[in-house]
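Exercise: predict the fold of this chain.
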Amino acid sequence: MADTENKAVATKADADLPAHLQGKTKDVKFGNVDSSDIIIPRVKLLQSTSPEVEAYDTAKIGQFWHTLAEQPMGDRLRIVPVFMKKEVVVWAPRGDDRGILARSSDCINWDEGYANLEHTVKIKNVKEPYTFNTRDNVEQSKLLQFGQIHGDPDSKPFAALTYRFMFLFPDFLELGPAIIINTRSGVKPAKQLISKIELRPVDHYAQQYVMSTTEETSDDGPYKGYSYTADGYASEEVYNMAKELYDTYKDLDWKASEETDDGGASGDGKTENKQSAGRVGGEASEKTGKQADGKF
């Protein structure tokens, strides 16, 4: 089985190479590079607001898009979970090209350079600009609390719990691992995936799932959401690749090549589940009571 998959991957990769390079392998190292120098590609779920939809003829709403290969991957993807990092991220509002305004990798203290920063932003459906300060840490900033935007008790938290997943894709092994970001409306399916992983009897990188899209609606209109469904277990070859990736990246501070909110239900407006929006502690599986501590 493993030999068959190896040959299939090699054949697919060779198809894109000129004849004199087909069958060749990488035999030398490109300088003193290690894994900490590598920024991992991103796979995005394309929305009506995604710039890729305008920029590429092959980019369609509701498809998963590989940002480095600049190619669609369909609306259903087999995935093998490699690693997960849970963070608190302050995203700039849509249309604001500043991207990430603050990040806390431990959900308690801001990462270096993000503490005690003041930002002014324009939030959709809010008349006056909103100015906030990140303070010394997440709790002091109150950015994960409802009712902080101009004292409106129904205003959503401006910061967002965010799950950064590293997945391997059995049907696209030649593209290597990539990052999926689940935030805002993607938090619930992310927690469901984590709970499913915790319930199964083997390590996460031996498990396989199907990541697909759902039809959702919000105050901003319709959008595409995430869904994760169990799909058995990884083949021996994929399992070995995923385990090697886990061992390589588990102690590194890896980032995505492009970090933006996919553009599902936004943090703007007032409609959100207060019970789950601001929780940043260990997220317990409903059936096992196990906790996700930043890795699977």
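Check your answer against the key: The first helix runs from residue 2 to 14.
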